[in-house]
Every structure is written in C-alpha cells, then in structure tokens.
Specification:
This protein is mostly helical. Helix 3 packs antiparallel against helix 5. The longest helix has 25 residues. The model has no long low-confidence stretch (mean pLDDT about 95).
Length: about 180
C-alpha cells in the first residue's frame, strides 16, 4: 500500500481499510477448524461462517443498488458460499469491486457521490432513497460492526493472536510502504 494518503478521499480510505481489515480477518479465520468456523456462538448470524456470508450478501445488495442492478439476494441470511476458500475469493473480489466503485465515485464518475439511489428492502417492502455517499458509509459501518462480532467469536474459539485491525494500523502500514517505496 504505497498510495499517498493525502490524495485520497475519506471514502477511498475507508474502501482500502475495509479490504485491509477483511484480509487480516480472513487470515485468522483460516486457522480455525471447520467445527470452530461453523459453531453456533450465539451471535445474530450464529457462526463465523454465517456472519461472513451475511457481510458478502449485504455488500452485494448495496453495490448492486449503486450500480442500478438487481442483486439476486433473497434474504439477509442467505449462504452464498459453503466452502471457506470460495467465500474468501468472493470476499476479495467484492473488496476490489468496492474500491473501484469508491474510486470512480470519489472523482465524480458514474454519477458521483451525491447521486440518489432508489431501492426497496430485500424483502421488497418500503421504497427508500439515499445518496451514494450514505450508502458507502452504511456499507463500511456495517462491515466494522460484524467484524467486531467475528473478533468476539474468534476469542470464544480460543484464538488470542488476532492482529489489531483499527484504522490507525492501516495508516501506519501505508505510511511505511510510502517511505520505503
């Protein structure tokens, strides 16, 4: 990450942070046994597996709305990938897609950040409208919320070496990479 922090819009930084944090989280999750990965830990989406799928579901919903497309999502608890490695690959692809969307919108392409997006809930109820910038903020906040839940579930599974995933640690990595470039 040798990008210049000063040239990035806050939403571009958050897109990079989202990708960075997900990579770190998936690196830890891959060390779990399948039993620990799928164990019901009493979280809103039960297990680490189901919570990771939920995050991908919601990102697909929001990015499809931004793009004016139908997501194909039928429910917030839909399982998109049973296999961890398939889920991880889909997560990496989605994070790259989110970065591309943020980059394009932040420089005023594709309607910019203030474009209003009209949509219905996944259940098909209620019509809503939100500017793209609010959708991005919602998407990033949602990711952080559930990564925190997964962090707790990892602790319940006995994992103690979870790397810090606060934004400041990504900033430090970016600054070090820029200095060494």
């Amino acid at each position: 990450m040798s990008e210049n922090l000063e040239t990035l819009h806050d939403l571009q930084i958050m897109a990079r942070y989202n990708q960075w944090a997900n990579q770190h989280l998936y690196d830890v999750v891959k060390t779990l046994s399948d039993e620990d990965y799928r164990a019901d830990r009493g979280a809103f989406f039960n297990s680490i597996h189901e919570t990771l799928n939920h995050l991908l579901v919601i990102d697909r919903v929001w990015t499809s709305r931004i793009n004016g497309e139908y997501s194909g999502i039928k429910g917030l608890d839909q399982i998109l990938h049973e296999d961890f490695m398939d889920l991880r690959a889909a997560r990496a692809a989605m994070d790259s897609h989110i970065r591309m969307l943020a980059d394009r919108r932040c420089v005023g392409l594709d309607g910019g950040l203030d474009q209003e997006v009209r949509y219905r809930t996944v259940a098909g109820e209620d019509k809503h409208a939100s500017p793209v910038r609010h959708i991005f903020l919602t998407l990033f906040n949602h990711q952080t919320h559930h990564r925190g839940q997964i962090h707790c579930m990892l602790t319940q599974a006995g994992i103690r070496d979870i790397p810090p995933m606060d934004l400041i640690f990504m900033y430090r990595e970016m600054s070090e990479a820029a200095e060494n470039a």
